[in-house]
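Recap from last week: sequence in, structure out.
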Amino acid sequence: MHNVTAVAHRGDPYRVRENTLASLRSALRRGADAVEIDVRLTRDGVPVLLHDDTLKRLWEHDRPLRALSWEEVRGVTDDGVPTLSDALTATGGGRVMIDLPGEPDVRAVRRVVDAVREQGAEDRVYYCAGAPAMLAVRAADPSAEIALTRTTPAPPRTGLLDAIRPRWLNYRFGLVDRALADRVHRDGYLLSVWTPDTRRSMRRLLAVGVDSITTNRIDVLCALRDGGPRATAPGAP
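Predicted structure tokens:
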């Protein structure tokens, strides 16, 4: 089996609250090659880790993030939401995949790219999202590593690929079969998938030859990939 990059989706969310420093550290301890994080901006332009547009689901605070300053976010979450800079420091030399959820504008994308540059982390960070966000990343950093997210099996338009210049095509895992994997590789790209959480799905994707898997169960993926004892646990999904 070729080497597959194991990416921890929002850290280790089955054990520790997602997109927190503790979750990222837990994922790395459990063998993750990279951690995936979601980054949005506060009202005053601070990049922080949060998938949703409000703090309701994780922090029981229903105001939109964009309506809160960084100091207000710190206050209502008891310092639970880390900044992007904090996350890059906490992951040490580890790889970080930055997802830009929602519809980030050019200003927001530039601020995120600037924060990565300020930390000197360009060589270990790569970005994923749909075409509008990735076009903005490419404009902000001509050398950025990009995983273009796809929600349809249809191949991206040639003009779009030429403009974004992704290294990866990043597909929802249920769309991926051997034919799609072969086409992606034949076209000269690496194939990443998100987010299978059962052993059956992970085994299938490993068998068709994907290059990276993003999952909420990073320990299960690492065991399957590396042939550890948990890979064959009886009765496990």
